[in-house]
């Protein structure tokens, strides 16, 4: 029989063994994280653009580990030279996924103007994430671009266009990874970009830093904040501002029927209440919803040919406007209430067969789809990495709940690239542990205000500011709100009052 003292000794030894195991496990995990960080390198380089050289600008590249693709990610740091400069910079995370940071001459000039106007008193750090902007290796596919330009001139049904896009996209990813293993789709994800950005601020040597994320950039910000909890490092994330929040679990093909339907109905309601908009339509005897659907029917039967001017100075492009392309252009215009008048004028233009009335809607839509500032293949790879494919029956149930445009949403599930770009580990939504300000536009069609209200109700460490009569990207619409952010970054624990004259909704 073993004495009680022996049992006590055995118990103590077991506890010591457990403590030592936990210690060495944690130390090994920390060492592994540190080693991974050391594989990243920031290399200062000459700046590759023309800009205001009275400004203090530092350029460089973040070199990622070979095990994750050996990417070179361009970085631009706009130094704040005011006497009120704080030492905690702001990393700006743009939308997308797939949007570059516009690290070229025109873009940097715009960033300098934005920085001076915002007066945030901090350095601004900009980066082209994997597959965007000037990052290398570049995820490009000549066949993808050629196919898209050919389609613009042809009258194809939406199903035919989706089917062709499905096959071309798959061939592009297969060709890209065969040419360069770094371009395997598994190297593109929000989780991976979060690791890249955390490594960047660590190598730059700041003690604390902040985030300003817009649209998809908010999802990336939340993943960064989650990694900060589980893999702490010496450079500490201090605060986040999330404009038009797009968290994990929202978005993707599965939400398309709801998002499209609600976006168009916001336009229908807003236009019906605006005399300028209703006058532009030119038909007061029929409801705007019926006029919109009649427009789609006309264009399905009789497409219209256009020559669209390119903003980049390239040769104009031929564009055949049919029903589903009109719907896409109209959806793009719902992002800002200021563009709703263009939809109304285009509806009248189709009825009158007036090209001049339609072009203001089409020109930005076509140019944005061809912009080098956005990479559609990167968008596809990251979106599929983040979002699991839902069951077809579940998707069709969602389609049936929004019948007005179901003809245009029914085939989206079948032809989504995520069938062959399967998510290895779907992105999960986590509550941020740092003070976080959420900005939302009441009229936002693509990241609806309900998303912001939902996560704010769950997350106790957040403030929510809802702007009336504003849609997507609140800060691009409310200049005074942008200038108010310095108060939040300086004192994140205080209630954010925003623009006092706008009477915003603060929760």
UniProtKB/TrEMBL annotation:
<protein>
    <recommendedName>
        <fullName>Proline iminopeptidase</fullName>
    </recommendedName>
</protein>
<dbReference type="GO" id="GO:0005737">
    <property type="term" value="C:cytoplasm"/>
</dbReference>
<dbReference type="GO" id="GO:0006508">
    <property type="term" value="P:proteolysis"/>
</dbReference>
<dbReference type="InterPro" id="IPR029058">
    <property type="entry name" value="AB_hydrolase_fold"/>
</dbReference>
<keyword id="KW-0812">Transmembrane</keyword>
<feature type="domain" description="AB hydrolase-1">
    <location>
        <begin position="89"/>
        <end position="475"/>
    </location>
</feature>
<dbReference type="InterPro" id="IPR005944">
    <property type="entry name" value="Pro_iminopeptidase"/>
</dbReference>
<keyword id="KW-0472">Membrane</keyword>
<dbReference type="InterPro" id="IPR000073">
    <property type="entry name" value="AB_hydrolase_1"/>
</dbReference>
<keyword id="KW-1133">Transmembrane helix</keyword>
<dbReference type="GO" id="GO:0004177">
    <property type="term" value="F:aminopeptidase activity"/>
</dbReference>
<dbReference type="Pfam" id="PF00561">
    <property type="entry name" value="Abhydrolase_1"/>
</dbReference>
<feature type="transmembrane region" description="Helical">
    <location>
        <begin position="7"/>
        <end position="26"/>
    </location>
</feature>
